[in-house]
Design a protein that fits this description.
- The chain is of the alpha/beta class.
- It folds into two domains: 20-316, ABC transporter type 1, transmembrane domain (ABC transporter transmembrane region fold); 337-576, P-loop containing nucleotide triphosphate hydrolases (Rossmann fold, 3-Layer(aba) Sandwich).
- Helices cover 65% and strands 10% of the residues.
- Strands 6-7-8-3-9-10 form a six-stranded mixed β-sheet. Strands 2-1-4-5 form a four-stranded antiparallel β-sheet, with no helix packed on it.
- Helix 1 packs across helix 10 (275-316), helix 3 packs antiparallel against helix 10 and helix 14 packs across helix 16.
- The longest helix is centred in the middle third of the chain and has 54 residues, at 217-270.
- It is elongated.
- The structure holds adenosine-5'-diphosphate (ADP).
- Adenosine-5'-diphosphate (ADP) binds next to helix 5 and helix 11.
Length: 578
């Protein structure tokens, strides 16, 4: 029932290509039905040409055969190419839709699905949708028609023989299906084994030091060898089952043919049946084998494809919780940020990440968020660009609740520089230009200069045209951060959110990053998740987070004099996040 719903939903993607699909079906029906004509062609050749020595028929038949081959070829090609094109078009549409959908999802969803999982949904699962359509569903239609056509031909040629043959036939098909089932089970087990093996290998490689320091090499070796042997056995069993298919088939086929031959041969000798009739009949039985074999495989591939389809629709049905309001308010001209009794809990968590948090960040000021890791600082800043929406309370910018602003406009007013700076697999130039796609080369260079990035960029192998990001030129943490700062400078947004790096930079890099940041912060309403003492000292106000609440706030001196959590953090030589 559920599977039917999935297929029904897949068929909605077929709508734009309805005409092509109907044409494909038409070709499929004619191609399938043409199978039924083959035994008759053979019958006429044998009876007409060889038995009756009919010359007229001899000249006619080659033309008929060529015409038949041409038509059958055309329909075969037509159904294949049309279905395949439609399949690829649906894959393309699904991929675009998934990509578009992922762009609307909160990055938190990626944790739930796993980023590798998402990638495989877009690249592999979508391909399965094509398989379902072009292989499974097409096979059910085409091969059923072929079977019906051939059975009709067989019955027409001889009902009694057909009965004998068709009783023997399922007997032959059954073991083939059994072997197929076993092969699928073994295949699945083999895949699991390969997975287990690579996990073991991965932990041996990544955890190499741990393995060695605990002297666990023999244990790892044993675990690996056990799994390796299991995989070997499964593979051999699978191959044995596969190798058995053909001989078993042929043997059973031989029995069926022998039975038919015994009865049929007798009638030919007695003169009650022509040779042509008999051979044509045998041929229709032979031809039945292929569509039957195909149909017996459909079930497995269909299940696999349905699983993939289920994963695709599951992702598409994940609602982006955060959408534009129905009526939007214009972005305010002043950017004072306020949190009013904000409470937030992640859907999969018991405890509140933020609990009744209220704070006020005046326009143009710099505040620092400090507190232990997991105390809610990142969650709090994620509420401002509406990566998350609070469960209770409100976040306002210039007295307007952020949920009344157009999302794209709100986000265009916020620049973020995070400790996990993401650089795209592109040139340095394009990575900076991401901040403002309308900027000129001069503006980009000037932003890089302000970010203390121009000098090191100029020294790169291809300067601004050096490829960075995954697979590109390896930049240091400080360099990546300065590129991110240049990107933010270019964006020139009135609100700035900064997640300082915990990773220690060397003194010179730190000074440069620090200097670049202070240039960036001029005149901006800035929130810094602070890890450095200098940032905390320079902040207009510090908010101390503990277990989702703000437990203290004030300037550095005020907080120190209170001898509370901040005092403790400070005396441990740590300001935050540690
Ligand atoms: P901080 O930035 O101070 O280190 P966070 O705001 O990241 O703290 O985390 C606050 C709490 O929310 C923690 O208990 C953390 O485990 C939880 N949390 C953070 N991100 C997620 C997420 N994507 N899904 C579920 N829980 C999360």
């Amino acid at each position: 029932m559920y599977n039917q719903l999935l297929v029904k939903r897949l068929f909605t993607y077929l709508k734009p290509y309805r005409a092509e699909f109907i044409l494909g079906l038409f070709c499929m029906v004619l191609f399938g039905a043409s199978d039924g004509a083959i035994p008759f062609l053979v019958k006429y050749i044998l009876d007409g040409v060889f038995a009756d020595q009919n010359k007229q028929l001899l000249t006619l038949l080659p033309i008929l055969i060529i015409a038949f081959a041409l038509l059958r070829g055309a329909f075969g090609f037509g159904q294949e190419i049309l279905m395949s094109r439609i399949g690829h078009k649906i894959v393309r549409d699904l991929r675009s839709q998934l990509n578009k959908h992922i762009l609307t999802l909160h990055p938190g969803y990626f944790v739930e699905f796993g980023s590798a999982g998402l990638v495989s949904r877009v690249s592999n699962d979508t391909l399965q949708a094509k398989t379902l359509l072009t292989e499974s569903i097409a096979s059910v239609i085409r091969d059923s028609i072929r079977i019906v056509g051939l059975i009709c031909a067989a019955i027409y040629l001889d009902p009694i023989l057909a009965l004998i043959g068709l009783v023997a036939f399922p007997l032959g098909v059954y073991p083939v299906m059994r072997i197929g089932k076993r092969m699928r089970a073994l295949g699945k087990r083999g895949q699991e084994s390969v997975g287990a093996l690579s996990t073991l290998l991965q932990s041996t490689i990544i955890g190499g030091k741990v393995v060695r320091v605990f002297g666990r090499e023999p244990y790892e070796e044993k675990r690996f060898d056990e799994e390796n042997t299991r995989l070997f056995r499964t593979m051999v069993k699978g191959d044995t089952a596969k190798a058995l298919t053909t001989p078993i088939n042929e043997f059973l086929g031989a029995i069926a043919i022998s039975a038919v031959l015994l009865y049929g041969g007798l009638t030919v000798i007695n003169g009650t049946r022509t040779q042509g009739d008999f051979i044509a009949f045998l041929l229709s039985l032979f031809l039945l084998y292929d569509p039957f074999k195909r149909l017996s495989k459909v079930h497995a591939s269909m299940q696999q494809a349905l699983g993939a389809l289920d994963r695709i629709f599951d992702l598409l049905d994940t609602k982006p919780a955060i959408i534009d309001p129905v009526t939007t308010k214009p972005f305010p001209s002043y950017t004072e940020i306020k949190f009013k009794n904000v409470t937030f809990r992640y859907p999969n968590q018991e405890v509140y990440a933020l609990n009744d948090v209220s704070l006020d960040i005046p326009q143009g000021s710099t505040v620092a968020f400090v507190g232990f890791s997991g105390s809610g600082k990142s969650t709090a800043v994620d509420l401002i660009p509406r990566f998350l929406d609070p469960n209770k309370g409100e976040v306002t910018v210039g007295s307007v609740n952020v949920n009344q602003l157009k999302l794209s406009e709100l986000r265009s007013k916020i620049a973020m520089v995070s400790q996990h700076t993401f650089l795209f697999h592109d040139t340095v130039f394009e990575n900076i230009r991401y901040g403002d796609l309308n900027s000129t080369k001069e503006e980009i260079e000037s932003a890089a200069k302000s970010a203390f990035a121009h000098d090191f960029i100029s020294a790169l192998p291809d300067g601004y045209n050096t490829m960075v990001g995954e697979g590109g030129f390896a930049l240091s943490g400080g360099e990546r951060q300065r590129i991110a700062i240049a990107r933010a400078i270019l964006k020139n947004a009135p609100i700035l959110i900064l997640d300082e790096a915990t990773a220690s930079l060397d003194n010179r890099s730190e000074r440069e990053v620090q200097e670049a940041l202070s240039r960036l912060m001029v005149g901006k309403t800035s929130i810094v998740i602070a890890h450095r003492l200098s940032t905390v000292l320079g902040a207009d106000k510090i908010f101390v987070f503990e277990e989702g609440r703000i437990v203290e706030s004030g300037t550095h001196e005020e907080l120190l004099s209170r001898s509370g959590l901040y005092y403790r953090l400070y005396n441990e030589g740590k300001t935050a996040g540690v």
